[in-house]
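Severity: low
Component: inverse-folding endpoint
Summary: output formatting inconsistent between runs
Steps to reproduce: submit the following structure tokens with default settings.
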């Protein structure tokens, strides 16, 4: 990234600071869950496989806790960062194909998932059992607008990246208590 009429050197430093913070979260996920990171095109892509987990989702205009589907025994996460400054890249169409021994297990479009410390794309899934899998990730060229006549001509091509030899272990995270603990009214800022 270089200075332009839309991004002065100090502003670019702020963006890199945001990217540094996201990278620290990626490294924490790597230590916690064995994330695997690869550069692909103009992205840094991270893959994590965890136990299936419940999530909040909209139902009749309210956020409601939903357990993972009964047959779900895995959760796949794909984090995508800008290779130039390290910031999370929102608004992407991310699709994964998981296979084992040349046999396709499933293909899924991954929605954005808000996470307390690492925003990512992901989904729960059903795997046939433990083993070594291949995860092919496809990121479409995004259709979002790009500021900046100098730095904005980016992310113009779709990207494919393969993660081979990924060890999958089936499992489910325990359900949280029915009533959330420690909820507080949101505050502005930090």
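Observed output (run 2 of 3):
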């Amino acid at each position: 990234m270089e200075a332009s009429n839309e991004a002065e050197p100090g502003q670019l430093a702020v963006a890199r600071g945001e990217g540094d913070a996201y990278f620290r979260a990626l490294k924490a996920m790597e230590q916690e869950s064995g994330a695997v990171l690869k550069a692909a095109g103009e992205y840094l892509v991270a893959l994590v496989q965890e136990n299936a987990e419940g999530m909040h989702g909209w139902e009749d205009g309210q956020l409601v806790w939903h357990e993972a589907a009964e047959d779900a025994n895995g959760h796949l996460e794909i984090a995508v960062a800008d290779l130039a400054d390290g910031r999370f890249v929102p608004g992407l169409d991310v699709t994964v194909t998981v296979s084992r021994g040349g046999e396709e297990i499933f293909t899924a479009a991954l929605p954005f998932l808000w996470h307390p410390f690492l925003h990512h794309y992901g989904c729960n899934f059903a795997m046939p059992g433990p083993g070594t899998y291949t995860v092919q990730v496809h990121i479409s060229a995004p259709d979002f607008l790009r500021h900046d006549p100098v730095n904005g001509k980016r992310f113009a091509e779709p990207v494919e990246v393969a993660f081979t030899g990924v060890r999958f272990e089936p499992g489910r995270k325990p359900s949280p208590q029915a009533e959330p603990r420690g909820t507080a009214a949101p505050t502005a800022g930090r």
